[in-house]
Amino acid sequence: MKVLLIGSGGREHALAKLIKRSLLEPRLFIAMDYRNPGLEREAIERNGMAYIVNLIDPMAIAKVVEEVSPDLIIIGPEEPQFHGVVDALREKGFTVFGASRRCAEIEKSKVYARTLMWRHSIDGRLYFKAFRSIEEAKKFIEFAGDIVIKPARQAGGKGVKVLKDAQAYLAKDRLEVKKNYVEKLFAEMDSYKDIDYKILVEQRVEGVEYTAMVVTDGETVLPLPLVQDHPHAFEFDIGPETGGMGSIQGPGWLLPFVTFDEYRKTFEIISNVLKVLQTEVREPYVGAFAGQMMLTGFWGPTVIEFYSRFGDPELSNIIPVVESDFLEILDRAANRRLSSVKLMIDESIVTIVKAIAPAGYPDNRKLASGHPVYIDEARIREIGCETLYASVERRADGKLYTKGSRAIEIVCKGDSYEEVYKKSELAVNFVYSLDGHPLFYRRDIGSEELLSNRMRIAEKVRTVYRSRVANGLLGKMLVWIPGEGVFDNPLISFVR
Asked: Which CATH class is domain 2-97?
């Protein structure tokens, strides 16, 4: 079976590893926009080859596809979806696993995703307001209180700022921070010409985040095990948001801080969103889909945002646990024959993924780029872990250089978090900077201390949302305005 994988990073390396062990004996071809050494090697080992191509140019991708003539095309990242690559390939008669441009709007436009949930009264939705102009946004945030400010378009996992109004004496300074950040975000979003709204302001919620990924053929929705990503750059969830500094999974389908009822409710929300999305766009959703969720006192399982693809690094956690033929699952989904498939996993193990990034990431990718690194894969394998290559390229001199984002992901497995955490902490020592430029990772991911903290928070919010259920207040925010009365949150409203 000839398979063409499109994408350049850690998620695609995870997909390649899952694909290559298939009983369908795949010949693996990969289209990428830089020489990722891990992907290049996976292609060669499976009797295929790698192509360097512009991944958001449908015509350039089509030339590669026509040369390879694959039985199945798998789209890894979101930007090719946003730019119509999937649509162009399907129009040419190729079988594609990936969301069409219209279906991928659920990720590209956070305004569309939020509006969709409100329009169809789907549980887990947050109050929000979106802005086209900087003046309207700055005026609104003067009175908005506790908020989250986001880019209105998917921007590679960056640009989110959470602002809590707790100390009255800091109100003036905090307002200046809000206004300055709005100006900065508007400037950054001005380069995106494919959206109307630039900034999204949401109500702030607290709780424990996790990712719920599925494979779907437009009718059947096949859940993957829950994974928890760690998007903040630095330990104990501080610093700027990144594309994800690491993730944990297991044991089994759940996480230590998510109950089965919460798991079931999460996938009910995802299934409902997919159903109404397909009704609105009048196209089947064929591909991967994910909800970035948070367990909150406001709703219980609550939607933070959606992905029209597998999460990165979350998919990396799935490599050691999947026992089914993953390529067969993707192929059946692409051919609209997923109904008879069951995903089998090893429910006895847990996995930890740690990403290693060059200093400068995520705010100064220029500073983080162009640094030579060396990875001792043999020593990492001796520990019992796997190496995935992400934002790192092999140049003409044969050396590996960083490209400004997370360079390496290390995937470790074992029978307990304590065991796997020790493995991960050993393994990261075998990624070296060759020019002295600092590399960093999050030491706390998978640690007993952080896991215990997550479990304490989850139990607190669980008590709150269960009380809201009992009192008929789930998902409601009541605001008292002196002299006017109590309202169902008139301050942050959805776009009609």
From this structure: alpha beta
The Cα–Cα gap between 98 and 308 comes to 8
Q: Does the structure show a pLDDT above 50 at 1?
A: yes
* Spatial contact of 355 and 443, defined as CB atoms under 8 Å apart: no
Domain positions in the chain are 2-97, 127-203, 207-448
pLDDT tens digit string along 3-47?
Answer: 999 999 999 999 999 999 999 999 999 999 999 999 999 999 999
Is pTM beyond 0.85? Reply is yes
Q: In this structure, what token pair is assigned to residue 1? A: 């079976």
Residue with tokens 């219209």: 102
261 token code pair = 């009822």
Dist. CA 496–CA 492, nearest whole Å: 13
Report the candidate in 344, 367, 371, 373 with the shortest Cα–Cα distance to residue 432: 373
Cα dist. 108→81, 140, 201, 491 in Å? 9, 24, 16, 25
User: Which secondary structure element, helix H or strand E, spans residue 356, and what is its range?
Assistant: strand 350-358
Which has the closest alpha carbon to 7: 115, 59, 85, 67?
A: 85
